[in-house]
Structures are given as structure tokens and as C-alpha cells.
Amino acid sequence: MEHVKRRAAALELAAEAGVDVLLVTKITHIRYLTGFTGTAGVLLLAPEPVLVVDFRYGAQARQQVEGVEVDGDCAPPRLWATAVDRLTARRAARVGVDTRNLTAEQYLALVSAVGAERLIDCAGLVEGLRAVKDADEIAALTDAAALAEELVRRLPEWLRPGRPENEIAGEIEFAQRHLGAERSAATILVSSGERSTMPHGAASDKPLRMGEPVLVDLSPVVRGYRADITRTFHLGPASPEYRRLHQAVTEAHGEAMAAVRAGVRASAVDAVARKVLARYELDGFFNHSLGHGIGLDQHEPPLLSPYDDTILRAGMVVMIEPGVYVPGVGGTRIEDAVVVTESGCTPLTTSDTGIREL
To answer: Could you tell me which residue ranges the Creatinase N-terminal domain spans (predicted)?
Structure first.
């Protein structure tokens, strides 16, 4: 029923935009609107919708999708041509497209088939719907977060001097599959010592050493929805300089979470964290955004950054992830998912955010 409601909401917005058929090509949009979990397809969203997939996914789509005609017999190279043929057969006066999700070749073929004058830009239409999560989505995100928390609980068993970062990442991958995750949403990040100053330091063959920080960022997927959590560990006692970094990040994390509520601009939440770090004269070492939306994609609107003035709405799920990365000292980050409410937010991950000295 949720997919039916989502399609109805998308059709209502499309009608307001003057669109007869909304052409949906982004695969996570298609999953959101139909439940199809394959990796290739085109959805013609109209009162009588059609999902075009190639023969690899025909049987799968017919099993997963209800209330949508499935055209699933073409060869993979003919997928786009088949979708365009189905579109032109409808003789729709106005076709909604999001050119950000089309290749240049696809766009030119579409223009040739229906004419540029009949195409209406609908960029952001489905993203706007997806930004506010429904009950099914919150349930999946909550389950993914719980799985991520269990992995964090197990990390001290694996973080031992002499073990390569890659080996730790392998432990995480094996354990999350065993616990029921479909896969990792992103590369598992395990970065130790000076490598912890790399915000996206993918695991390497570097061995863990006593006296070093270890930053771990993991993101298991449950029912298509992603968790995202970062915690910082230290092999042995942390230096006063490193403790100061983590204290600054802890305060920025807490004050930013306290600032989240419906009606607040995304940029305002980001500014709260930067103000805290500026008090410590560490704002110059925080050069990524404070956070992002999360769901079927790892990074979804809104972006908690100085450049996004989106007004937060109840039901959005956003990441709060301040971090500082100081060469010669180390890097530290705390990352948690929260559900925006009218009066504040509800964290999905709540495990200890302090430095964990092992």
C-alpha cells in the first residue's frame, strides 16, 4: 500500500507541474515508487503506469511490483529504446523528466522521439517526496541503525595492534552479512594514525599501532535502507591534544543535535556546529558538511551545509557528523542519524560517543 500512496503523491505533483507522464529513470526512485529492487529499469508514471525492464529482471519485477504493468522482455541494450517506444505510443502532450538522471545520449534520443518542446523539467519532484520518510521507511532505517550499533559494540574485539585496517574492514563486512545486512552502502572506512586525518580514509594494509587513533565509519543496508555511523577509538591512552579535538567534536555534535527541529533551516544547524568548533579554533579543520539526508541513497536531500537553506520537516532523517582532522594530531568524527520531529529530533543511533580507549 505504501508504494500506491507514493505513486499517487508523485502523480499529484506531476499534474500540478502540467505533466501527463513522468519519466523516472533513477533506480532508487523506481524502488521507492514500485518496490522493484533490480538495478536497471525505466518507469513511465501515469494513471496507468508501466515499468520497463530488460529480460534479466522481468520475472523479478512481476513478483515484486503490484499495480504497475511490467514490460520485461527486451534485451538489455534495448531497454532505453523500448521505454521511449512505450512513451511515444502514449502520445503524451507533456512529459516530465529529470535531466540530471539521464545520459546525454538518452536525452537526445528522447528529444528526437517526442520533441524538446514537450519535455518539462521535473528535477527534484521525487526527491522532495522521498525527503520525508513514511512509517515503513522509518522502520527500515531503525533496523539498519540497530544493526550498525551492534557492529560498533563488537569493534573492540577486532581493533588490536598489528591487525591491518583491511582485516578489520573484512571483519565488519562478514559480521554485518551474518547479522542480516544486504551489503555495505559505502566503502567501510577504517583509518588509523595519521590516516585518520583523511575524512574518507578507506581501509588499507596499514597495521594498527599502539598510541594511535582509529576512526571507523560503517553503513549496513537493511531492506534497501542505509545506516551510517562513525565512532572513534584509541589504542592506549589518548594525548591531551587529541582529547581536545574530540571534546570539540563532541560539543559540536551535541549542540547541532539540539538545534534540529522542524522549521529550522539546514544551514542553520550546520552553523551551530561550526560555531562550537570556532570556539576551539578548529573550524578550519572541518571542511565537509555537517550532514545529509539518508534513505535508499547514502546521500539524499537535505544537505546540512552552509549552502542549503532547506527548511527541515518532521519525518526527515538526517545525519549529524561533525569532524576535525589535524595533521600531526589525528582525526576524529562522530556520526549519528536522527529523525526530525516538530519539537526536536529522535536519534536512531545512541551508542557512546566518547573516545574509546582500548
So the answer is: 6-132
